[in-house]
Amino acid sequence: MNVEAIVQKINSEIKDKVQEVSVTAPLRINIKVDRGQLLAVLQYLKDQFGFTHMATVSGLDLGEQFEVIYHMANNLATINVRILTPRSDPRIPSTCSVIPGAILYERELQDMFGLVVENIPDPRPLLLADDWPAGEYPLRKDWHFNRPAEIIPGGK
Amino acid sequence: MEFKVSLGPQHPALHEPISLRMTLDGEIIRDADLKLGYNHRGIEKLAESRTYIQNLYLTERICGICSFSHQTCYTQGVEKLMELVPAKRGLYIRTLVCELERVHSHLLWLGVAGQEAGFESFFMYTWRDREVVMDILDTISGNRVHYSMNTFGGVRRDIDELQKKRILDSLSLLRSRTEYYLHIGANEPTFVGRLAGVGMLSKEKAIALCAVGPTLRASGVPMDVRKDDPYAVYDEIPFEVCTADSCDVLGRAVVRVKELMQSYNIIEFLLKNLPAGPIKVKAPRKVKENEVFSRYEAPRGENVHYIKSNGSDKPERLKVRAPTLANYPATIAMLKNGFIADIPLIFAAIDPCICCAERLVQLDNPRNGESKVITFSQLRAMANQRYKNVNFKKKESLWPF
User: Fold this and answer.
1) Which residues make up the CATH 1.10.645.10 domain(s) of chain B?
2) What residue numbers bound the domain in which A43 lies?
3) Of B25, B40, B156, B195, which sits most exposed with the smallest number of CB within 10 A?
């Protein structure tokens, strides 16, 4: 099965669940879905084509909304499943029920973008320091690092 | 009776700061938990404020062992964004360094595995042979750790006939040594007995937890980015994907030794078929608005970079996922229901130490499980009390100061 066959099958079988399907580069398929349909689409890709490997989950800050990209890979192609979530209501569903290995990527998203992953099995912070201030999400575009002034002990 | 033992994040036996918390039942690990982030440097955020050229050297510094993996993964991603076709000779040299790096990383891993299994001479042997590869890398790039070979459109340094001959000579030595290791690995009963059956990870679990690299291939899944999604010149090179079905640490060692043999074949093929021509083409400074998802088979598994450009000379977003992060959920599954003594083997390169168990819980009676918690101030008072009662003076001697 090649990329064209996958796109054709997606277009004919789950047309109502996806918003847009396109081939952006060799072996790369882009699928835009509504965040409510994400789990159904991932389950379909897993059952129909064997997309069991989630390479990673990338978050993007687009200003008014966040884009979350689930990179699914197998030996046929790589599918980027993309969802949008508004900044005022940054909720996304947890994909751990379909892909158990997604847990660390979703915890990372919570830390770095402040997204709320619903039904995540383990919601603890992953990467940031224990004394990291609440409500600060470093990979958002409006977050800037301000280096604290250096204090030399005994200096002027 | 269960109790918790915590290891790290800072410990002399740990190579990297990571915290491991285990729930133990006697000697058996019932649950394990990882806490990460002690070495988080904010590279993804930093990359957004650096130009593409500057990020070449930033991505190289993500890792000290597979530095070339991250740089190549980033470079080929940006080349796709620039719609640049790299020079053929440059791609061959790039692939050559990729494979040399795989050889040095696998030899390093074999040594660490030998050391953790209590096979010190194996560690000494493999690390001595690793120096041969390091010397080759030094001849090609002038560096032992960060090779700085990549640039957009090709590589920065060419190799000449003399270097080619030296690499091929060293390769025959490495090949004979690796055959000897394969012989030892299959026939030395103590080594096989220590590694076999440790850290079991079934095929279904490895797939479900998204494991990558030799960890996945040792569970019988033939996934290799070099075959599935060929980059550089891997579509022109004949090689096999090495797998094992034993699902344990022995299988992971076998996969790595087999991959070493494959890598020697690839290196020989690349050197004998090295095309003539320029090693790089000129690259633009600015990049059109686009995005790319770049995959690379690093020595430890699939390495992933996602790059989004916004039309300027700086990336809008660089997302890096190193292979080790993908293997953590699988590592926890491997640790469960294993023995404490197997942790160093399973964790191999991380090498935690069990003697530094949690000191605040004092187990009074292991039969009925009554435990007593002592706070730090109480512990200090107890210590002061103890040292007050001890008479440090030996019979008639006087403290000189």
Assistant:
1) 43-321
2) 3-91
3) B25
Residue B348 has pLDDT above 80, yes or no: no
A54 touches chain B (CB under 8 A): yes
Is A150 a domain residue? no
Token output for B213: 């690299």
B229/A138 CB distance under 8 A: no
Is A48 part of a structural domain of the chain?
A: yes
- Write the CB contacts of B198 (distance below 8 Å, at least 6 apart in sequence): B248, B249, B250, B338, B342, B345, B346
How many angstroms separate the Cα of B59 from the Cα of each of B43, B64, B100, B148, B390?
A: 8, 11, 19, 11, 56
- Whether the CB-CB separation of A44 and A38 falls below 8 Å is answered with no
A140 domain residue, yes or no:
no
Residues of A in contact with B321 (CB under 8 A): 55-56, 105
User: Would the CB atoms of B44 and A58 count as touching at under 8 Å?
Assistant: no
- CB A29 within 8 Å of CB A78: yes
Cβ separation of B306 and A56 shorter than 8 Å?
A: yes
pLDDT greater at residue B135 or residue B10: B135
Q: Tokens 């470079």 correspond to what residue?
A: B75
pLDDT category, B331, cuts 50, 70, 90? confident
Q: Decide if A53 touches B, using CB distance below 8 A.
A: yes
The Cα of A11 is separated from the nearest Cα of chain B by a number of Å equal to 23
> Is the predicted pLDDT of residue B367 greater than 90, yes or no?
no
Residues A99 and B210 sit within 8 Å (Cβ to Cβ): yes
CATH number for position A72: 3.30.460.80
Q: From the options 1.20.910.10, 3.40.1030.10, 1.10.645.10, 3.40.50.300, give the CATH code of B43-321.
A: 1.10.645.10
Q: Does residue A24 contact residue A34 with C-beta atoms inside 8 Å?
A: no
pLDDT at B360 exceeding the cut of 60: no
Q: Is residue A121 part of a domain?
A: no
Q: Do the Cβ atoms of B210 and A25 come within 8 Å?
A: no
Number of structural domains, chain A? 1
When CB atoms are compared, the residue of B229, B321, B328 closest to A78 is B229
Q: Above 0.90 for ipTM, yes or no? A: yes
Confidence of residue B358 (pLDDT cuts 50, 70, 90): very low
CA B375 to chain centroid, in Å, comes to 38
Check B304 against A56: CB less than 8 A apart.
Answer: yes
CB–CB contact B208 A100 (8 Å): yes
Strands A28-33 and A78-86: parallel
